[in-house]
Amino acid sequence: MAVRILVVDDDRAVRESLRRSLSFNGYSVDLA
Fold this sequence. Notes:
Elements lengths: L3 E4 L4 H13 L3 E4 L1
Parallel strand pairs: 1-2
């Protein structure tokens, strides 16, 4: 089971960058 992480930031570029990096490393990422 993958660890789920919620990324909350008002900057879309930061959210997407974190999503890509974390997903690449096996995490399940939700954005808000």
